[in-house]
């Protein structure tokens, strides 16, 4: 159908695209005339996405967009590149350009609850266990849990999703005696909710350190993201709510394009 979309032949376009193109042709702001053409197209595409598209929707091809805006494909590609950089859309090689979800606001507080936060934002959350094992702890991790370097630790890896889209991968370290508890009963769902039910307490966050790194190992594969895009790494220490004894050390990797970390001072 793309070859029918040139010129004024709007009747062959989907209704929403026809409506937007008609508005674009008949309403050009004073400021837009001073902008480069690709910036004008970027603005119009952004408005079209906000009004008529949802997360996961595929945009028209570059050829169709070029015909819609009466420009060459290079100009359209430049406009879309800006939207990709801004995190509004993503390119999938050989497939097309797709609308991304808006960044999820994730507060870093003492009692942060992943599932509850997403539900408040109107999103469905899922937490899935990827692996559970005992392994020697590095000096940094073991010492944060009050153990000697090389001491055996319980390691639990989980993947968190919002509306089916992966947003974070977390590695949780506990003392080895918790291995049996997690091994027998934990499969998915709120991890701290599980601890509250089975251990009688919900850990409290007392420290978080944030940095930006490129994904390592299989992180990009689990998070469904390019290896050259950064993740937000958060190292957190959680303690027992009554004794303040360290009970959990967490290394989380968030997709930087899907999460906005909110620190309240």
How would you explain this protein's 3D organization?
With 265 residues, the protein is of the alpha+beta class. The chain folds into two domains: 2-99, Winged helix-like DNA-binding domain superfamily/Winged helix DNA-binding domain (Arc Repressor Mutant, subunit A); 104-262, Chorismate lyase (3-Layer(aba) Sandwich). The chain contains nine helices and ten strands. A hairpin with a 2-residue loop joins strand 5 (152-162) and strand 6. It is elongated. It starts with 14 loop residues before the first helix and ends with a strand.
Structural class based on helices, strands and sheet pairing: alpha+beta
Q: Class of the largest domain in CATH?
A: Alpha Beta
Task: Output the number of helix runs.
Answer: 9
Principal-axes geometry comes out as: elongated
Number of domains: 2
Rg on CA atoms, Å:
24 Å
In terms of per-residue confidence, which ranges show pLDDT below 50 for 5 or more consecutive residues? 1-13, 26-31
The quaternary organization reads as single chain
Helix content: 25-40%
Query: What share of the residues does DSSP label as strand, in percent?
Result: 25-35%
User: Which fold name is given in CATH as the topology of the largest domain?
Assistant: Chorismate lyase
Instruction: Spell out the CATH superfamily of the largest domain.
Output: Chorismate lyase-like
Query: Would you count the extended β strands for me?
Result: 10
